[in-house]
Amino acid sequence: TQLLEQSPQFLSIQEGENLTVYCNSSSVFSSLQWYRQEPGEGPVLLVTVVTGGEVKKLKRLTFQFGDARKDSSLHITAAQPGDTGLYLCAGVRLSGQLTFGSGTQLTVLP
Amino acid sequence: GAVVSQHPSWVICKSGTSVKIECRSLDFQATTMFWYRQFPKQSLMLMATSNEGSKATYEQGVEKDKFLINHASLTLSTLTVTSAHPEDSSFYICSARDRREGSYEQYFGPGTRLTVT
Known about the structure:
- By secondary structure, chain A is mostly beta strands.
- Chain A has no helices and eleven strands.
- In chain B, the strands form two sheets. In chain B, strands 2, 4, 5, 6, 9, 10 and 11 form a seven-stranded mixed beta sheet that branches. Chain B has a four-stranded antiparallel beta sheet with strand order 1-3-8-7, with no helix packed on it.
- In chain B, strand 9 and strand 10 form a beta hairpin.
- Chain B is globular, with a radius of gyration of 13 Å.
- Classes of the chains: A mainly beta (about 110), B mainly beta (about 120).
- At the A-B interface, strand 5 and strand 10 of A face strand 4, strand 5 and strand 9 of B.
């Protein structure tokens, strides 16, 4: 059972467009992380959000943690082909274990 | 810093044989390492948590006798897939947590592609 549901599952957009990926959970996590994974490689950490309502920006990427610490969103402004990849949210349990979301495959077309 | 390596990066084996995958933290000591499995076009699923010097903790549905985990040192954990079958073909990824840090950040290895024929 996937505790973290991401939407959309697949997203194909043109270069320059904006997009938002959602991560929803029925559970509360101590913190939530976003990763990007390229084919044949391990995931790379983008950001960790800890506080309910927190907003973090990383260049063209904006991450938001819901007030109840059960959901999060990733917004990309002016997407570029280099943003193509599998985006994964992951809830951090108190034990430190990660529960990954179902994933969003993003393709940015030039 | 915080580099995790895996060896081999890919392996092909015959059904019924065993395969060992190594996970090393190259520039830090890891008290805890995690093993994940990822099927094509799917997310990462945690298989087990490996603590140095103690038995691994397996997630529900993961056979501990089939997926043997050894964490003999602070920089090395191994996953052995015993009596492999084609359905075990997958991308296996490890991660390691730095014992020095108070945070729960995990550093991921590059993954090992296992194909069982």
